[in-house]
Design brief:
It comes from Novosphingobium chloroacetimidivorans. InterPro entries: RelE/ParE_toxin (IPR007712), RelE/ParE_toxin_dom_sf (IPR035093), TA_system_RelE-like_toxin (IPR051803). This protein is globular. The protein contains 2 helices and 4 strands. The protein is α+β, with helices and mostly antiparallel strands. The chain starts with a helix and ends in a 12-residue tail after the last strand. The protein is 38% helix and 28% strand. A 4-stranded antiparallel beta sheet has the order 1-2-3-4, with helices on one face. Helix 1 packs antiparallel against helix 2.
Length: 88
């Protein structure tokens, strides 16, 4: 749901071209994380085993699960998360 909200907000605030570019950037970051799952900084304040990787102005929160990268949240860097690891 985070990505849908980001896209909807981007379309309203920045237009189609900028939003497409930003969303394509997410795909590039996700591909990078698949190849280099430990690229993100460990951020235990968001929950045990949570890593963060920036795609300005957003922070991608994820965890490693077996051989997979599980995207947990995508937050604007201005937001303060009340992330509850037990719910994700």
């Amino acid at each position: 749901m985070d990505l849908e909200d980001i896209q909807d907000h981007g379309l309203i605030e920045f237009g189609l071209a900028a939003t497409r570019n930003h969303m394509a950037g997410f795909e590039k970051v996700f591909a990078l994380l698949r190849r280099h799952p430990r690229a993100g900084q460990l951020r235990e304040e968001f929950g045990q085993g949570i890593r963060a990787f920036s795609h300005a102005p957003h922070r991608i929160l994820y965890r490693l699960q077996a051989d997979d990268v599980l995207i947990v949240r995508v937050l604007h860097t201005a937001m303060r998360s009340r992330f509850a690891s037990g719910k994700h």
